[in-house]
Amino acid sequence: MSLLTDLINLNLSDVTEKIIAEYIWIGGSGTDIRSKARTLSHEVSDPKDLPKWNYDGSSTGQAPGKDSEVIIYPQAIFRDPFRRGKNILVICDTYTPAGEPIPTNKRANAAKIFSHPDVVAEEPWFGIEQECTLLQKDVQWPLGWPIGGYPGPQGPYYCGTGADKAYGRDIVDAHYKACLYAGINISGINGEVMPGQWEFQVGPTVGISSGDQVWAARYILERITEVAGVVLSFDPKPIQGDWNGAGAHTNYSTKSMREEGGIKVIKKAIEKLGLRHKEHISAYGEGNERRLTGRHETADINTFSWGVANRGASIRVGRDTEREGKGYFEDRRPASNMDPYIVTSMITETTILLK
């Protein structure tokens, strides 16, 4: 095993200019992450300089067997925390051979929205609080929980410390450092209310880069849990009963909101979000109805509400924002399995482009 570890950690730059690029894309379910690697002749820092590639879409649920080729376009580059050196991770999106985005490619439409002149002028910022649950591999039961049983009630686990309260800290701390190494603007981690559940935050990020960075962070965490022999779940309600679900609270601001008098812009934006509540809910993640019950720090899925410092509302405005009269707000509706390209672009479209 020590030889295997030595080989995995070989520094290629000592002997060659060639690098390894891991191409990453979203599979047919819209939540599964696929990847494969290729050798490049030299270091690359701009995705425009990377070659397009293809894969068998019939094996990912994205194309029929008789016409299975799907083309992947490189869109964002991150340092590879696994191979290190000059090797890279490449976030890609997916197209037909004719150059049309396939149905599961949500990045293409998001890019159109974020490139709109009105949106560019407003510089939308995002901070996404990605919650997830770590599961024991063979039994699909939360890490640290007795098999077939339950731990003590919620209360001591949120931001808790100790072997009887924090399960999987080594995994999330490794992920934290790996994301920083990769160049992802990860801003923090914490243990969540349900034991075995954790949160990491990505942001502030601008526009389309929010989705790129969240997907890259998810990929890195999938790889780390793979090594650890733990299953990573983004199910919005992994355990039924008196246990918190998992969300992806999305913090958002525009240039106008961050300037003096921005609270008026924030309230107008919230009003617009209320008008499209059903449309947003339908796009905010599968199974979200199991999470948004009006309990466990959520609003009821059928009712739109907002409030200051209210974690039981659809939209939360922070005390600092209220006091300063400018800032940001938090959309608490997105589920943990949401597509960040959809959520960020939809919030932007509704609040900036909707007249």
TrEMBL record:
Cellular compartments per GO CC: cytoplasm
Keywords: ATP-binding, Cytoplasm, Ligase, Nucleotide-binding
GO MF annotation list: ATP binding; glutamine synthetase activity
PROSITE patterns linked to this entry: GLNA_1, GLNA_ATP, GS_BETA_GRASP, GS_CATALYTIC
Enzymatic reactions: L-glutamate + NH4(+) + ATP = L-glutamine + ADP + phosphate + H(+)
Gene3D superfamilies: Glutamine synthetase, N-terminal domain, Glutamine synthetase/guanido kinase, catalytic domain
Entry's localization field: Cytoplasm
The protein, known as: Glutamine synthetase
Organism per entry: Picea sitchensis (Sitka spruce)
Lineage start: Eukaryota, Viridiplantae, Streptophyta, Embryophyta, Tracheophyta
